[in-house]
Write a structure and sequence with these properties.
Shape: elongated
Order of helices and strands: HHEHEHEEHEH
Distance between the termini: 30 Å
Strand order of the largest sheet: 3-2-1-4-5
Strand content: 15-25%
Number of strands: 5
Number of helices: 6
Oligomer: single chain
Length: about 220
């Protein structure tokens, strides 16, 4: 199978507001602990040491978490996407659908493995497909990538027309269990007989598995 030149697009920082808040809160906690050492040293020495240790420990913990989140966004998730796509053992001729494709993290990884196939990404209205397509160009797969706008609970594809469906950190954004089940049912509907599914998420994964088993 032909493997395209390995370049990476810009898939952003996951939860950037959380990363920012962790950084500032971590710095603030360490500063507060250090300041208490000077303001209360003579009055309440025990409390001072407690505040100092707490500030340093809590601050360091938050800063380390922020650094790990940045590492995950820039390096970790790129490694994880390759392992996920590896599990599919693609032939290169498949039609692949990325549900909730975002900036194309899985979409472009799958497209790298194609020779004569097609990789289609679908995402909700409000996301910017031009960013996804820019990443496809950066990774050298724009010729096999297509991006559509639509609702994963009502996929704009005919029955049994997709060989492989992938999704990363997307289905959990549907707020209701009924809505998530509807998305899984749509995934099953568009899959060809013997088609494959790879879903990556951090919530409701057992719910997805049960729904897929129930759908055969």
């Amino acid at each position: 199978m032909h493997t395209r030149v390995r370049r990476h697009g810009d898939y952003g920082i996951d939860a950037p507001i959380v990363v920012r808040n962790l950084f500032f809160a971590g710095v603030a906690a360490m500063i507060a602990g250090a300041i208490s050492r000077y303001l209360l040293a003579e009055k309440c020495p025990v409390i001072v040491w407690i505040l100092l240790i707490w500030g340093l420990f809590a601050g360091a913990s938050m800063l380390v978490t922020a650094v790990l989140m940045v590492w995950s966004s820039k390096i970790g998730k790129l490694r994880l996407r390759e392992r996920l796509i590896d599990l599919l053992s693609l032939r290169g001729t498949e039609t692949i659908l990325d549900v909730g494709c975002g900036r194309g993290l899985l979409l472009n990884a799958a497209a790298r493995r194609l020779t004569t196939g097609k990789a289609i990404g679908i995402d909700q209205s409000g996301n910017h497909p031009e960013a996804t397509l820019a990443n496809a160009r950066a990774e050298g797969v724009a010729d096999v990538v297509e991006v559509k706008t639509g609702d994963m609970r009502k996929l704009p594809f005919e029955d049994e027309t997709i060989d492989v469906v992938v999704s990363s950190l997307a289905i959990h954004n549907i707020p209701t269990k009924e809505g998530r089940l509807q998305a899984i049912q749509e995934i099953a509907r568009v899959l060809k007989p013997g088609g494959r599914v790879a879903l990556l998420d951090f919530q409701h994964t057992e719910e997805y598995a049960q729904a897929l088993r129930a759908l055969g």
